[in-house]
TrEMBL record:
<dbReference type="InterPro" id="IPR036856">
    <property type="entry name" value="Ald_Oxase/Xan_DH_a/b_sf"/>
</dbReference>
<dbReference type="Pfam" id="PF02738">
    <property type="entry name" value="MoCoBD_1"/>
</dbReference>
<feature type="domain" description="Aldehyde oxidase/xanthine dehydrogenase a/b hammerhead">
    <location>
        <begin position="32"/>
        <end position="146"/>
    </location>
</feature>
<dbReference type="Pfam" id="PF01315">
    <property type="entry name" value="Ald_Xan_dh_C"/>
</dbReference>
<keyword id="KW-0500">Molybdenum</keyword>
<dbReference type="InterPro" id="IPR037165">
    <property type="entry name" value="AldOxase/xan_DH_Mopterin-bd_sf"/>
</dbReference>
<dbReference type="InterPro" id="IPR016208">
    <property type="entry name" value="Ald_Oxase/xanthine_DH-like"/>
</dbReference>
<dbReference type="InterPro" id="IPR000674">
    <property type="entry name" value="Ald_Oxase/Xan_DH_a/b"/>
</dbReference>
<dbReference type="InterPro" id="IPR008274">
    <property type="entry name" value="AldOxase/xan_DH_MoCoBD1"/>
</dbReference>
<dbReference type="GO" id="GO:0016491">
    <property type="term" value="F:oxidoreductase activity"/>
</dbReference>
<dbReference type="Pfam" id="PF20256">
    <property type="entry name" value="MoCoBD_2"/>
</dbReference>
<protein>
    <submittedName>
        <fullName>Dehydrogenase</fullName>
    </submittedName>
</protein>
<feature type="region of interest" description="Disordered">
    <location>
        <begin position="1"/>
        <end position="38"/>
    </location>
</feature>
<dbReference type="InterPro" id="IPR046867">
    <property type="entry name" value="AldOxase/xan_DH_MoCoBD2"/>
</dbReference>
<keyword id="KW-0560">Oxidoreductase</keyword>
<dbReference type="GO" id="GO:0005506">
    <property type="term" value="F:iron ion binding"/>
</dbReference>
Amino acid sequence: MSKDSLAQPADVLRPRHVGAPIKRTEDPRLLTGNGEYTADRKPDRPLHIAFRRSEQPHARIVRIDTAAAQTAPGVVAVLTAEDVADDFKPVIPFSRMANYYATPTLPLASGKVRYVGEAIVAVIATSRYLAEDAVELIEIEFEPLGAVSRSETAVAVDAPLLHEEAGTNVLIAREFRKGDVEADLKGAAVRVGGRFEMTRKAPLAMEPRSYTAEYDARRGAITLYTSSNIPGIVRDAISESLGLPGSRLRVVAPDVGGSFGSKGSLYPEELLICIAARKLGRSLKWTADRLEDVSSSSQAFAEIVDAEMGFDANGIAIALQADVLGDVGAYSIYPWTCGLEPVQVVSFLPGPYKIRSYRGAVRGVATCKPPTGPYRGVGRPISTFVTERLMDLGAKALGLDPIEIRRRNLVRAGEFPYRIASGIIWDKTGFVECLDAAGEAAGYEKLRVRQAEARKDGRLFGIGIASYAELTGIGSRIAVAPGMPINTGSETAKISIDSTGAITAAFGVASHGQGLETTLAQIIADDLGASFEDIRVIQGDSDAVPMSTGTYASRSAVLGGGAAKRASALLRDKIKRVASYLLEANHDDIELSGGKATVIGTDRAVTFRQVAKAVYSDMKTLPAEAREELSASYTYDPINGTTAAATHIVAVEVDPATCFVKIHKYVVAEDCGQIINPMIVDGQVHGGVAQGIGAALFEELVYDEDAQLLSASLVDYMIPSAPDIPDMDVVHIESQSAVAGGFRGMGEGGTIGAPAAIANAIADALSPYDIDVNLLPMNPQRIFGLIEQAKLKAKENPK
């Protein structure tokens, strides 16, 4: 069968399910408490783990005394790094990138600790309560080695080294360059710039990290249930580390209560629980409490960017340069490497704009904090924040409207595919269309009139705009993190019809709240011609397909959906061949719809169940050569992936008395290609914007100079609540992408656009004070400080 026929079977009717707001099939079990999360697993007589974690940010482990813990009630084992040293090989987040040092992933700290919260000892007992009691009995003697709490101090010549063998705290360094940036900046009519920073964030999924290792003594096998969105990657890594064949190690991600990226990496606790299960021949469980989750799960952002942009007299951006200092924490996270977040900042800084010359340099430096890792948006929230602030600063300097300066610089319809200055290629998407649609939906001109009226009354009312682009559904030619030796560019779908006519579709992707069971079934229902209700979707199980990676980088609809379409086409052809025998009709005269094969223009039909019975049960109906298994598998690779785009427009008001920010209006115009389920798409946009509001106004992991986390609880770590989230208008621009189905990823966009749009709106609101916004979150305390500084400056320098 040709690729063309795979892409679009001749008899496929107009989609009935794709594009429809079908209610999520997951919701009934989740909303009624019948979901099964990792902590819900009930293996036979499981043991429970508690960890003794470091209270030191950077120290040598001189002595560990576990004698009292070993004799405590209910304790079965106490494990240190020395106890498990021969049971595994370190997992190395390898990369072929130059100027990169890969730190090993170990189950427990060995020799020294590098951040507060790092696991040192595992206590295994008959209950979590008893294990926690025994942890308190462990004595550890430390030799402090000096804390490194800020990226600026980590690069100092005399800074303590977290990894002596690396010889430096700079774990990754890269530079992108195009054109003569220095000359173009010198020749620019207007130059704007500044130092920008987004502080550390906690992903804070509703369900903390949780693992259950179920041991099968008959086969010496382990099934690891994990709240992960990359079960396939976790299986492969643990299999190699423990020398355990994949046939004896199954990794399952059941229902997962959110991730936002934090569950998209291999964690030391996952290694440890499998090592302990095999060592003890018992099943084990561990679920992080909220403190453990905040202080030991991967964290986000933490970049400082010194950037400058040059414009000609017509407002055309001609040059951009940036130096990025990324705080990557104590380790390089597997498999993404410590380059994932900071390198993507410099990769995406040019954004959707035609900037002639560019230089972007980045250093990712080790500090005494948990590793940074995947977080919704990965690098693009900070890069969009910087570029969009520079666009607004340029507009202000040139006397242009913020929408107009963007319109002059966005890549336009006739210019795709377009290679931006960092080398990323945007395929055809609706950059300008999103800008125009957002402006129209927001009533932009009327908002400006409203702003003028508010300012007459002395109110601080501002309007912010942010346009961005992102790569989604990345294929094999573009690594999610450069140089990784693992496949993140393809996904497999395996669709089967059993002897009853029921359809099971297995995927390598793994949902953590996106509604993939529903959207993937919608695609199959249309492309296979099946009844939506007859389709069962299996995902998040390393045994379901030969190779799987998981869900990240806005890839599930693009890669999983593409695989579903291709596998459906193959299986569709098999069904039609069988049906042509049963209906005594030509293969091309048969159409499939609603779980039936019908001769076109007649009422002669057979159900999928009748087809399955003929193949599997009734040996007299078909000749032997016509019987073929009713299953098909396809591994889909979109090669380059595809581009998603959006523009956000927000109107805010700053209360001069309390310095709180109130959002009056929020509009998103986004292009995610062919929409599979508009209800789910809108939900993803709303959730992403809510998270972006948190990053812009509330959320911050505060570390003191001794690298102690001061905001480790939900008392101190502020997140937006329902009253802080406005009603949102979402406008869809459905330009077709080049990948199968025309889909584009969209799960991260809200988090990318919201911080920049809100930062610009706050800066606009505070423009009477001539205040720049260059640090997020912009909480009331910071706004108060900026206003007071501006008032003091005005007194000292009266006009």
